[in-house]
Amino acid sequence: MSCNRRDFLKGMAACFAGGVMGRGGGIFKLRGTHVSFSAAPRGMPGGNIVVFVQLSGGNDGINMVYPLNGKQRSNYEMARPTLALPIDTTTMQPWVDAKIGGTAVLDIGQNVDGNNYAFNPAMGALHNLFTQGKLAVLPGVHYPAANHSHFESTNIYTSADPSGNNADGWFGKFLNLDSGYSASDVPTVIMGDSQSPLFTPSVPGIFTFSNLDALQFPANDDGQLKAMIFNDYCAMASGRDGNAFPEMVKIAQTAHATVTHLTEFYNPAGADGMLIPAKVQALLLDKDGNYSRDNPLIYSSPLNTDVNPAIQGNDLATDLKHVAAIIRADVGARFFHVTIGGFDTHSEQEKGLYHSSLLNQLSEALAAFYAELGQAVTLPAALTGYQTGDLTNNVALVSFSEFGRTITQNATDPNKAGTDHAASAPQLVLGGKVLGGQYGVYPQLDDPGAEAQDDLKLTTDFRDVFGTMLDKWLNVPVADLGPGTGKILTPTSVADQDGNSYTAYTPLGFL
Fold this sequence. Notes:
The chain is of the alpha/beta class. About 30% of the residues lie in helices and about 15% in strands.
């Protein structure tokens, strides 16, 4: 094809006048210029949204959800003489002084084991959601024959295959088998610097970024013109015979989908300094029309620090602010992954309330995200095609970590004590349609796993958690879950030393 810059700019102007580009509505001012754009129907599969929150490093679940009474409490205090968390208001002062907790123990009630449990004192915001029935706690989640390697166990969690031999992400299998998306769609967004194996390999596209402005066509000059020409070539290559040229067609389809959807998220300044804001970008512009990762949402939101100072400096909350903007912009992305790191607490676990502070960041960020989705927002009249109402019934958020920590602390000095790599730990599920409460038995502290004498046993297989999300939330046919060859979930028919195997999916009750 032949196209010069002038012809290209004329064509772009015609596209915007006809509402072809930019699938939303907006009007913004930059250097005295107003640019408007209007909504266009997406025609993509609709449905529920999933947000995965990874607690990277191996979260100490025993100090995230800890025992308050009974045999579990006495064993907890014996195993953790300096790391044990409080059972009454008289010992809450450190969390009060650090301004990450109140004076009340955050009791979540009795588990089926007969003992009462509580959230870490720094998790007051999530405790409020638990008491409202919007948060499910699943203690003792893991897989048979626990692997204590960060890399291997992360691979196992993201593939749902305890053998560690499967590189395919279990959610990637869903995207390819049952999601209804094609290679021309980009339904998945990872907030971060690298792909998560949870989603790969995926036929539908994936965007991975920390800042929206990373989503630009990589050209120094005439970027929009070059992107258009490149996209035309990719579109032509995508139409070739996939049997004869499978690699070329796949690369072309991915590139075509990427370039096609980039400008739904972010548009750089165009000719003569004119800004054509993308739908997502439009919700994160400052008064001068500029985007920055730290900008607040353009409307009042619990994810803005001026409204909610508790999330100041909270990177997880910043990532979730972007997720909220993408969801409200309604650009077709439904599946998200965010990460909070720092959970590899081998030493100094509670020096300066370190682990508690991490859990406070998690708690405040998730609660702010839920509150953001739960409000009705008011946008400028020109911004059309956005989801402005209560979205909590459309979103489920699931936490996971590659493993939990040892039952016993590894040093007696409270400023040095930590915990080491172990096995099971609680997972959280948050959402408007989540049936809150505790699901499953809390593993017993005096009955460790046979393969590692300082590990909590698993009481809930992670495939039942994932399967419940797929079955009850995403309407995947149970026959496609497996486990088995060509299915989403991988079986483990050979039992570990504790007698754990997995041959059939059992739905859980949190949805």
